[in-house]
Structure formats: structure tokens, C-alpha cells
Amino acid sequence: PALSLHAHDGLLLEEVPLARIAREVGTPTWVYSAGTLRRRYRALRAALDGAGLEATIHYAAKANDSQAVLRVLRAEGAGADVVSGGELRATMAAGIPAAATVFSGVGKAPEEIRLALAEGIFQLNAESVEEVAMISAIAAGMGVRAPVALRVNPDVDAGTHAKITTGKAENKFGIAYEDAHALYAHMAALPGIRPIGIATHIGSQITAGMAAYHAAYARLAEMVRGLRAAGLPVERVDCGGGLGIPYRDEVAPAPEALAGTIKATLGGLGLPVMLEPGRWIAGPAGVLLASIVLQKQGRGRRFLVADAAMNDLLRPSLYEAWHGILPLSPARHAAPLAPADIVGPVCESGDTFARDRAMPDLPPGEFIAFLDAGAYGAVMSSTYNARPLAAEVMVDGTRFAVVRPRQTHQDLLAQQRLPEWLAP
Ligand code: LLP
């Protein structure tokens, strides 16, 4: 693991003492490990290759769209999965060509579709007859045929948190399995569409084993056979993302298990497959550093108030997500533990990172790290309570660099305008 405890320097990320970053850059600060990103990308690549799959990896930029992160993954050969024009611009700016990028999402605006087509997008994942009509009209107007895969909702339960499950019939995502064949046939008849395959994504943070994946991909394979029997062209299958990571004590499936499941279900089709992993690559590659503002002893409850809050790391408030929390100082690692609630300074009870967590005594000024914060961390931040966005740092071996300076209060005000009737 990229995190280790050094007897003198405390918690290190790769070779860099995190306390040094906290001192020099301040807190709260996100820190990403380039080495971890590379290692995890390569492990996934090796698992897919090892299963004998012809597969492309399209990193889900929504998990972490930092230019530094995207560049590290680009250098490893990653393509991208984007869900907005903004993400497409970000991945292209990091050198990931549109020709290696898939554009997913339930509501692509006409300008976003136009941008994707003008840039030569690899694949647009469409989800409804209405969207297919819109894409066809735009593409025809531009004199091109849009490469469209149909996102199918396989109606399986991925066994994950209700807010991040996507492959059940009641979710807003994808077209119902029963309607997909007819829509695919319809796409082939539209002037602006080149039907190229089918796609699915059943949820995120999947740790319940391979059963849901297996069920979903088996349904896709059956659909591909049906489409082919009807004489419809299918060039590839997009397997989505969702592979979970152990935040606490979950047993997350290994990428080899996913590769084996893809091989077992879709392998017989002789088609290339695509994967859209976000969390599995970026989650374990990042931490959020914070300082203890004060330790407050309530009646029978100890509160550790940090200078990071729900506006920085939203996952605990939004999903009751569990993140490991460690002190950076080596001395605090040896100290006795007692239960504490770790909270942020935002004016909401929901601004709580952990309850009854076994923590040492942490006086004001002590640093802590929230673990596994590389995915769905900084990207979900806001400036609630007029709290500027935290700084972002990348570590690579013995080096580190600020890859996004901390926002200033001045930055927040500079984005605002007053109507002339309120101007002084
Ligand atoms: N592909 C599609 C179409 C998706 O909707 C997603 C994630 C992914 C790929 C990447 O999934 P991953 O491999 O990262 O699980 N904010 C939530 C997670 C939302 C995931 C949304 N879709 C969280 O913090 O847990």
C-alpha cells in the first residue's frame, strides 16, 4: 500500500510525510498518489489481458477529474468515460482523445452532443428513444453518423447503496431490457445513427460478489445474440464500472473476478469489451488531510472538530459512507484510543464524518487523514458556508506538487456581480 507509518515522520504517502504537506500547503488538502493510480490501472489492465479479453479501459472522470490524475492515467493508456461537456473538455485537455472516450449520461444537452461529435467521440451511450432521435437529428445536421451504443437497464440489483445503484428497473438509467431490441433496430434505420453496440452500468461500490455482474452481462450476451440473429450489427459491449473497494472491512472483488465474469458471459461473442472504472482506480489513491480545530468534551461524548467538512468530503453525510481516519503523527498512533465523533465546522448535524470512532487524544493543531478519498471526493465539493475549495496535491515517489491551489475568499467574491440598483 502507498500509505505507511514511519517511526519519526508519521504517516507517509509513497515517500512523502503527509505532515510536511499539511504544514506547507495547509489544510484541508486532498493528496493523490500517482504511483497508486498507475499500479491500480496496471492491475486492472493485467486482469483483463490475463483473461484473454480484448478490452479497453475508459476511466470514469467523474470520480476525480483533476488534470494531474487524468494525465497520469493517460500516460498509462487510459481512455475516458465522461458525462458532461465539461468532463469531455477536461479529459481532452489532459491529452485523452475523444476517439478514446465514451460519453454516458441520462441528459446530454444538444451542445454537448454537438461538441462530442465535432471532436470525433468514440461512443455515445444513449438511453431512450427520445435521446436517440435528438442525437440522430443533430448528427444528420452535421453530416455525420453518430456512433451510438444503447445503454440497457438489465433490471438486476447490485446490492449497493440505494443512491448509487443504477441497474434496477425503477432507476432512471438506461432503456428497459424488453424495449432495447426494438430501439436498436430503430436506430439502424435513422439517418444520423450508426448503432455500434450495447452498454450497461449496474451501480457503484459493488462488493457483493459477481452475481449481479454475471446476471447483467449474461442478459447483454443474450441480447447481442438476438440482435445479430436479426441481422443488426454489434461491434462492442460496454460493461460499465462499479467495482467496489474496501473502505472498512468489505471484501471487494478482485479485478480478476470481474475479468473472469466478463469472459464467462460475453467472451463467446468474439467482441471487444469496454470497462468504465472510476472508484476502483482513484479511490485508494487519495486522502484528505485536515487539522483538528478543537477537541470538545460534551456530556458523555467527545467531539473532534476538524477543519474539513461536508462541503469537502460529502460521502459520509450523503451516503453514511465510512472512511478510515488516521492521525498523521507517529506518537498518536501509539496512544490509547477512546470513542469520538469526528465532525466538521459546517452548521448542520449532518456534517459528521464518523460516530463513536476509536481515536486517540487529539489536541488542536493535530493533523488527520481521511482515507480512500481519491474518488468522489474533491469532485463533489462545494463552497457551502463560504468555505473555499480545498487545495489538491499530487505525490509521486519522493516528490510532491500542488496541482490545484486552495481557493481564496477573494475568489469566491470575485465570481459575483451586483445589479446596478444594489451597487453602492
Ligand atoms: N459508468 C457510469 C455510466 C457511471 O454512472 C459510473 C458512476 C461509472 C461508470 C463509474 O463507477 P465506479 O467505477 O466509480 O463505481 N458519488 C457516489 C458514486 C456515484 C457513481 C455514479 N456513476 C459515491 O461517492 O459513492
TrEMBL record:
Any one GO MF annotation of this record: pyridoxal phosphate binding
Annotated EC: 4.1.1.20
Limits of the Orn/DAP/Arg decarboxylase 2 N-terminal domain: 36-282
Pfam families found in the cross-reference section: Orn_Arg_deC_N (PF02784)
Transmembrane segments: none
PANTHER family: DIAMINOPIMELATE DECARBOXYLASE, GROUP IV DECARBOXYLASE
Subunit: Homodimer.
Protein name, as recorded: Diaminopimelate decarboxylase
Taxonomic lineage of the native organism: Bacteria, Pseudomonadati, Pseudomonadota, Alphaproteobacteria, Acetobacterales
Gene field: lysA
